[in-house]
């Protein structure tokens, strides 16, 4: 009986895996540095804010390489471009007209702006939020991946987790890091100073992005990778814990507790789905 030879991985696959792990290690190091600086500011050489900028760039890079283990690179880059264009365009509109998020102004802490309107970091924040929320959604829905309507559930949960990402991120961004400043609205209800209109805007844009990127992120070879991927969950959870820690250290206890509860609930569902 002839012995079937084991198929070897192409060199490009091995390079992608090595690159992914290298970027993930660098991302973890940047995450640790930013976390430490929340407790004790450090006098580091170079321009201020480079640890946060490095964390953001490395987060996008390792998120993209994680997806390329399952999907063609051109599909992943297409999805990234779509997110950057839609997220950047809507935030530019918001900065100019206060629609759809509400009245806010960017602060100098978020970094330089493109055409003196949109900070370069904002579209990358959308990339991290959407793609990793989608990865967490795939973990949670893994037991039901073969049922009818799975794609719609995936898009809906992706939008919901993207909204929850902003729910945790916005108090940290506006009141801890001062990336932007919210001004009062006629509607008195806010969450840690963030108007309800912001979350309604994020919900609408998240649904739109989830719908548009869905065709690019469909796995045309579903049997290629059946093992659960916990990398998006690690990035998503790490971000929520970072936001909660920053809020706790600045006395925003309601936001910190909410972030902790959110992290615990999503962890339970993600682990349950991933180990199904």
Task: Please specify the SSE layout and strand pairing.
Blueprint: H1 11-39, H2 50-68, H3 73-97, E1 104-106, E2 113-114, E3 118-119, H4 121-140, H5 150-176, E4 180-182, E5 190-191, E6 194-195, H6 196-213, H7 231-249, H8 253-274
Antiparallel strand pairs: 1-4, 2-3, 5-6
Helix pairs in contact: 1-2, 1-7, 2-3, 2-4, 3-4, 3-6, 4-5, 4-7, 4-8, 5-6, 5-7, 7-8
Spans with pLDDT under 50 lasting ≥5 residues? 1-9
What share of the residues does DSSP label as strand, in percent?
Answer: 5-15%
Taking the sheet with the most strands, its summary is:
2 strands, antiparallel
Structural classification? mainly alpha
DSSP summary: helix tally: 8
End-to-end Cα distance:
36 Å
Order of SSEs, N→C?
HHHEEEHHEEEHHH
What strand line-up does the widest sheet have? 1-4
Mean pLDDT: 92
What gross morphology would you assign? globular
